[in-house]
Predict the structure.
Amino acid sequence: MLSAFSAPVGRGRGAARLAAVTLAAALVAAGALTGAGRAAADDGTVRKQGGATATIGGLKTYGAAVIRGDEGDQEISAGLFEMSVDGGGTLQTYCVDLYNPTRKGARYHETPWSGTSLGANKDAGRIRWILQNSYPQVNDLAALADRAGVRGGLTEQDAAVGTQVAIWRYSDGADVEAVDPQAERLADYLEKNARSLAEPKAALSLDPPALSGHPGERLGPVTVHTGVDRVRVTPPADAAMSGVRIVDEDGKDVTSAADGGQVYFDVPEDAVDGTAELTVQASTTVPVGRAFASESRSQTQILAGSSESTVSATAGATWAKTGAIPALSAVENCAEGGVDLTVVNGGDEAFGFELLGIEYTIGAGESRTVTVPLQEDQAYDFTIEGPGGFAQRFTGVLDCMTHAAEAAAAETDGLTTQTLAEPSPATAGNPAAGTNLAATGSSDATAAIAGTAIGLLLLGGTALVIARKRKPSAQD
């Protein structure tokens, strides 16, 4: 077990602004954020970029490593994780978030590097090189051992440990060594020879993820981005009832699309105000080096290998006859330390809302992206409300910094650090008092400890309600 995870008490972007947005977590439990009407809240996650969704099962090929520290050496498990993909398929991943726990059974979404600690890591491209040039991408272990100068050869366990150790040196800046000499030689070779490679693109995504307009119009286009020959296009679940069709620019029904293909929501003129969602799906291997972030506080992972797996992406449309017609999407932005909220208004009236004390007005036919600033490791839960009962909720945990980066930020800002056994400055309630959040193993005991801590952290999360102003008159 590692020592308790430390986080800065505050930093330039955090404490002052967070004080303005922290509400009692009881509001969430009491249902204060529940919305109904023209656009009911979806599943809440901000990760809508498309790709694979998977559940982590734990370490499958691993051995021992040692972290060197001022308080002594600590032995941990290191190696290759396995994930089960929704819809079919298996992923192999390494950890890029050493000092956080891995919660067995946690759900993960494929995520751009910008939504994880990799986005601000100048060595992220070297990690991808390590993945491309080591196990399991290189499964000829004799050749790998020869290339790395490892006498006596490598076992799968040696290869997995050595690869993970090399990754941690770049992802977390950790002073870590493999216990087995062969694995340590491989780690040294990989670290020394790593070169920077570009971030891989998602196997499948849609742009934009949300749009709006009036009945009787074709809403779009929505552009398909994919490395697959063809993807399957699934119309809205209630298409037969609502009459909404997914069509091409000529108005013909679309059931599949290629890279660069454009599709539209064809909304009947007599359709009542409402929403619809299209889904595109394919079966392919996920590109090595794609990041995976959890829906809860569980170690960020990076892809090392993929079977033929299901990838998907969604896009939503909102329509109304008159008034403001907001459509929302959000993505975590680690460079800005928050969540980027994009608001599209396809209506004929302005849409206004207040965010952290600032009033925004999105004019008819306009769109804008604003950033909700958040504290590192903070659970968030906020809802945007609008006309006709519109309400859309976004939840998650901002996980942008590794332990080393947080410590450096605290030192730079001249701030002290605190363990999560102490109250968080942006938390209502007691977040995981006395709980050790830093175990990296995958035992049942670790999963139980991490699960309890994560649950308590979520209960103490930031809650925001962003309501539409009746008479929006001020702009940011």
User: Anything to note?
Assistant: Residues 1-37, 39-43, 410-476 have pLDDT under 50 and may be disordered.
